[in-house]
Write a structure and sequence with these properties.
With about 350 residues, this protein is of the alpha+beta class. Helix content is about 40%, strand content about 20%. The strands form 2 sheets. Strands 1-4-5-9-8-7-6 form a 7-stranded mixed sheet. The chain has a two-stranded antiparallel ribbon with strand order 2-3. A hairpin with a 2-residue loop joins strand 6 and strand 7. The longest helix has about 40 residues. It is elongated. The protein binds phenylalanine. Phenylalanine binds next to strand 8 and strand 9. The site of phenylalanine has 11 residues, from strand 8 and strand 9.
Length: about 350
């Protein structure tokens, strides 16, 4: 019994002397580990003379519980102390307002594109994306421009090191891809995307720019449908009062070919500059899909007809926001981009 009393006193004294968590844990192993002193004392019950066994057993169990409780209390106190110490050492002001997160915005080019998509979506057009790296065959030949065709001069081309592989000069080769995928079904799509031309960079021309191509193929599609579609589009984008003017033009892949102008309000102080004094502003090239192109897409020109148009959303954006330098679009100058 006196061994038990000494054990308890010694254990309590050592526990009180533990200054951190590792020493506390070491203390626990010493007394409560598999061969720990408290467990050894409990196991010793069997060897105690019968008449003392009950008292010894009770006392041993009381000590076990008392030491366990003392240990848990000391451990909790030590954890709290360590936490407080670390909070004082690295003070954290949870009331400090957070740093504002920089929010991005859509690039002005993306904003225009999305507006164009939604106007055409309302007219039942789907967006169809095609490749920016094309072959000469699809960019020119299948669009009715054999090698050495003089019309190729309209599109100065970036060539790659692979013969015949080029960066597309317009979105029109997409017409071939979409026709070959959907033939003989009717088609009503827009084909948006980046185009590339090997040109001198000036305030008015860039070596890369976006286009939105439109293609409608079906039975009995007429020039009137083209005119109606373009008019509806221009009025949604530029205002209900806008007048449309159609001039005859030439593209190898449309016949007849047209260019479309809209009237520009005389009140606009930029009107003269934008319309070169004419009051009319060109927004797109278009026409009825050439029979050769229909055939290259898999459609029989005797049964099917269609129209196509191609416009430059950068030009349109420049008009709408009085941007006088096309190089701003891909210049990544935040002072420009943040205005929209
Ligand atoms: N692809 C022509 C261009 O880049 C535009 C166009 C598209 C003209 C479709 C007619 C029909 O200039």
């Amino acid at each position: 019994m006196s061994d038990l009393a000494t054990l308890e006193q010694r254990a309590q004294a050592e526990l009180a002397a533990c200054a951190d968590e590792p020493t506390l844990r070491a203390w626990h192993t010493k007394y409560f580990g598999k061969t720990g002193e408290v467990l050894t004392a409990l196991k010793a019950i069997g060897g105690v003379p019968h008449e003392q066994r009950k008292t010894y057993g009770q006392e041993a169990n009381r000590i076990k519980e008392a030491l366990t409780a003392a240990y848990e209390k000391a451990l909790a106190a030590e954890k709290e102390r360590a936490l407080q110490a670390s909070l004082t050492a690295n003070p954290l002001d949870v009331t400090l307002p957070g740093r504002p997160v920089q929010r991005g915005r859509l690039h002005i080019a993306t904003q225009t594109m999305r507006q164009v998509y939604s106007i055409f979506a309302d007219m039942g057009f789907q967006v169809y994306r095609t490749r920016e790296v094309e072959d000469d065959h699809t960019n020119f030949e299948l669009l009715n421009m054999p090698p050495h065709h003089p019309a190729r001069d309209m599109w100065d081309t970036f060539h790659t090191t692979v013969p015949g592989v080029i960066l597309r000069t317009h979105t029109s080769p997409g017409q071939i891809h979409v026709m070959r995928e959907f033939c003989p079904n009717p088609i009503r799509v827009i084909l948006p995307g980046m185009c590339y031309r090997y040109e001198a960079i000036t305030t008015r021309s860039e070596i890369q720019f976006q286009q939105v191509e439109g293609l409608v193929i079906g039975q009995h599609v007429t020039m009137a449908d083209l005119k109606g579609t373009i008019t509806a589009f221009a009025r949604r984008l530029f205002g209900q009062e806008r007048q449309l003017r159609i001039r005859s033009s030439y593209f190898p892949f449309t016949e007849p070919s047209i260019e479309v102008d809209i009237d520009w309000p005389k009140e606009d102080p930029n009107a003269d500059r934008l319309t070169k004094g004419t009051g009319w502003l060109e927004i797109m090239g278009a026409g009825m899909v050439h029979p050769v192109v229909l055939r290259n897409g898999g459609y029989d020109p005797a049964k099917f007809s269609g129209f196509a148009f191609g416009m430059g959303p950068q030009r349109i954006t420049m008009l709408r926001h009085a941007i006088d330098d096309i190089r701003q679009f891909w210049g990544n100058d935040l002072r420009f981009l943040r205005q929209f």
